[in-house]
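Side project, low priority. Logging it here so it doesn't get lost.
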Amino acid sequence: MVTEIKSVCIYVSDVDRAIGFYTRTLGFEKLSDARQGAIRWVELRPPRGETVIALASEGFPVWSPEKVGQFSGVTLAADDPDETFAALRSAGVRFQLEPEATAWGHQAVIEDPDGNAIVVVAA
């Protein structure tokens, strides 16, 4: 029986640049960084999260350049909306969709350095 979501992949062109963004800008922790042949497997997780983001780059079996810079399908949860979005803005994060009030919280869509769109919802 399936019990949880272990990981989701985000396709990137530069793993080290992506690691810097997710760890320094978003505050994720790097859980793994291993190589197996042409594959570099990197897992990142928000401080209170369980599901990890795996960075998929060239060498990964299903990676292709067309998958980089797309909507990731990932939604991140955050605390205080004003503080969260102000911190992201001051860190130079690009917003695809400016913060707006929704029925489920304040939502914005940000981009990682490869242009992958990520939804951030702050309650």
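Brief comment: Strands lie at 7-11, 29-36, 39-45, 52-56, 71-78, 94-102, 105-111, 117-122.
Revisit when time allows.
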